[in-house]
Amino acid sequence: MSVKCLVTAFALTMSIAMPVSAENHHQQSPKYKVQSLTENISMLKGKGGNIGLLTGDQGLLMIDDDYRSMSPALQKTLQKFGGEDKLTYIINTHWHGDHTEGNHHFGHHATIVAHDNVRERLLTSQEVKLFNMKTEPYPEHALPSITYQQALTLYINDEEVELLHLAGGHTDGDSVVFFKKANAVHMGDLYFNGFFPFVDIQNGGNVARMAENVGKVLELIDDKTIVIPGHGPVSNKAELKTFKMMLEGTLAEVKAMQDKGMNLGQMQLKGLSPKWQSWTTGFLSTSVWIGILHSSLEK
After folding, report:
1. What is the pLDDT of residues 84-131, one digit of tens each?
2. What angle do CA 10, 29, 200 make, to 5 degrees?
3. CB neighbour list of residue 231: distance below 8 Å, 6 or more residues apart
4. Which of 166, 254, 263, 272 is the most exposed place for a label (fewest CB within 10 A)?
């Protein structure tokens, strides 16, 4: 999405069409909700992205680490699993602050692992114009020290943890994390369960590619796979299919409007089919989502 289109979409919808801001969506949480998924895998839900946690004798493996402001609460929650000193690995599914700011604290305790592009982005100043969010370069201890290009496997706690890079969906550095023995997967922000996802087109994302990448994951899982989304409740293959159908269906509707010669403002005034209304329960309105879809098609 061009910066111009993203800002245009934002400006057109701020006053009437964005019912919940990004900041309101990520309300401060005084503590984490811990949901046990298997004998040694849990999901921790705080303010930002969902955290995956693998426990065992070899230490803790944590997927994402929330906003920096949540580190004290996360530190306290980890005490239930042996404490932060038991951290062995932190996996960053992508570079956004609601998944990586905890690196500033927990990077003192664990090795951080991510795709090459995550380290590159965290080394320099970054910006998400839609939310007026700016990120300063991370210090060395908060950067991924192990990076990969296409795939990487970690063996810990009798589990085979496979990181797979699926490019150009949410950002240019997305990792999907598979727990092969437990039959579980952490999707990062390639999956927002139940509401329109933020797709960071400014920084390498694209809705069409997101749908393609979700399709690739669907080919690798089965009906019993536990699916951890980047945001939203724990899920499964059937719900992930529904998410993919929404991505494809709304993209097709915007493409049809484009083919009729409608501009962005006209598309936003017309809106999408009523069947997508239930997906507006997150922090993106239909109008902002149309702007993201429109710009995805322009790339």
Report:
1. 999 999 999 999 999 999 999 999 999 999 999 999 999 999 999 888
2. 30
3. 49, 50, 189, 192, 193, 195, 197, 282
4. 263
Residues 87, 92, 98, 103, Cα dihedral to 10°: 50
> Following CA atoms 99, 100, 106, 108 in sequence, which dihedral angle do they give, to the nearest 10 degrees?
160
150-171 residue pLDDT tens? 999 999 999 999 999 999 999 9
Give the CA distances from residue 129 to residues 2, 18, 274, in Å, rounded to whole numbers and listed in that order.
11, 16, 29
- CA 225-228-217 angle, 5° bins: 60
Q: pLDDT > 70: what percent of the chain? A: 90
* Percent of the chain surpassing pLDDT 90: 87
> Cα separation of 248 and 254, whole Å?
10
